[in-house]
Each structure stands twice: as C-alpha cells, then as structure tokens.
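RESIDUES AND SHAPES:
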Amino acid sequence: MRAVVYTETGPSSVLQLVEREVPQPSPGEVLVRVVRAGVNPTDWKFRAGMMSGHDEVAPGQDGAGVVEALGEGVTGFEIGDHVWLLLAQHGRPYGTAVEYTVQPTARVAKLPAGASFDLGAALGVPFVTAHRLLTSGDVARLAPGALAGHTVLVAGGAGAVGNAAIQLARWAGATVVTTVSGPEKAALATAAGAHRVVTYTEGDPAEAILAIAPDGVDLVAEVAPAQNIGLDLAVTRIGGTIGIYANNGGDELTVPLRATFSRNLRFQFVILYTLDPALLRAAVEDITAAIEDGAVRIGGDAGLPLHRFPLEETAAAHDAVEGGAVGKVLLDVDPTL
C-alpha cells in the first residue's frame, strides 16, 4: 500500500511517500481502506516536533473509508460498511495518510446512509471538539432542543471547529452568535448557520454581543483565550461556561480572579487525546444523529470550503493548514470514490 510517513520530526519536507505492507487487524480491530483523510493543525504540529515516540509515523487523525476486514471478536461492523475515523494516529504509528489503516472499534464509526466520504473525513477533530465544548456547560448530550433557550458564542466562527460548533449548536436549538475578523469570514459563518455575526475589528464587540444577549451568553467556545479573556468575561452570564480548545494568539492566560469567581463562571479546557472514552462515544452518537437529521454539511455552501490534495502531496496539505487555509483540507487517498 502507499503511505506517507516521517521518521524524524521537522518541516513538511520530512514527509515521504513509501510502499508498505497492508496491515492486518488484531482482535478488536477493523481494517479500513481509506478513501479520504482530513488534515488538522494537530497533524502538522505533531510532525513538527510536538510528539514523537515511534520509529515511523503516518500522520492523520481523521478519515473515512470502507471496512475491508474484521479482527477476531469484532461486532457491529460488516465488510463493506462506510465508516469515519477519529483519533486514528493517537498513540499509534499509522494514522490516515495511508491506503489502509487498522483501528480499534472505538475509533471507527459508521457513516449514515447517503453521507459522503468527504463529510466523514471532515468530522473527527473539529466536530468531536465542538461537541465537547457544547456539552461542557449545563447540557450533557446534544439533540434537537437540548440547547433551546441557550445562547452560544463561538469565537472564530469561520474556522473548522467554529463551523462545527455553529452547526451542532444550531441543530440543538441554541441561538448562535459568532465573532469574525472581517466580511469574508462573516459570510462563511453565516453560511454555517450563525444567527448573528459580530465583526470584532469594528466597534465594541462586547456591546454588540450584549445587545443580542442582554443577560450574557450561556456558553463560549473559545479559540484564542489569551486575547479574548476580557471579552469573554464581559459577555458570559453568571453561572456560564467558557470552553477553551486552542491557544491561538498566545500561550499564557491571565484571569482576573474576582471578576471571574464573582460571576460563578466555569472554565472547561478541551483536548481530545485525554478525553474520557464515554465522552467520545457520546460525541460520536450525537454527531451521527445530527448527520441523519441533515444538520451537518460541508463545502462552500456550508461555510467550509474544501481544499483537496492527492496523497502524494500530503506535505503541501500540511503547509496549507499551517498557513491558515480557511475551510477543510482533505487528502484524496482514493480519488475514484
């Protein structure tokens, strides 16, 4: 099989296209023929040196494809099933930048009928992260009406996680407000389904948000806490939650204590790699339900433009993500499907 691998961390030039044997599933594992793979910031950060520990690594946490073989004891899947993958490279040497990957069943989920491989490859990191952000407050599971009466503020609504948070929050019944830097990203956030878009480079964003939610927002999905902590504290209601999933714009977060504890605020820091397996299962189930309801979309009409690269150009795909490509970067591992 073809695989893109690296044997040392560094710039994208360490990635190489090689031939490797098709792996075979062990007990409890599924062999998946990868059709499409998603590329996320975590992929290039691991490759650049954030994570090592294997002699050879094929990057990629997200993907979608077809079940080719089942390991001993596997139930709930059949050969030929269309599936999506999450956390495929976490703790393992081979992720989704390969033609075949073996994964434990907990990291494999069935694609609902009619869902494309493109959609499946776009789900993992962005949508599972968004699900955890949205369930870190007063609501433990997402479903239609679960967030009815809630106002959710999504910082950076044009990003992949922001897009996912807008779509899932709207499906669950929330009023969704998002902040963006300018008109192009405002158009993307609106296409994703945001009810109101606030351009934070114009006027006073806190005033604009509080005009929409006078008592404050119930939950914030925050991508740049170091920069936005003042705004978040100003617009989050008493007893609200600030969910943080990235460190865009700074690695140090300074929190004014009195202004924070006097409002009984909660902070929820989110990273998928140490998330409780029960929370991952809940995310997969709820995301699947949202797909079945037609609430999850990708492409320009959904505010998530697609950028495609063949497997042999994985390095260019990594560079695109690192360079801030707006939308979703995909690898066409099997461009015939």
In short: The mean pLDDT is 97. The CA atoms of residues 83 and 110 lie 4 Å apart. The first helix runs from residue 41 to 50. The domain at 127-273 is CATH 3.40.50.720 (Rossmann fold).
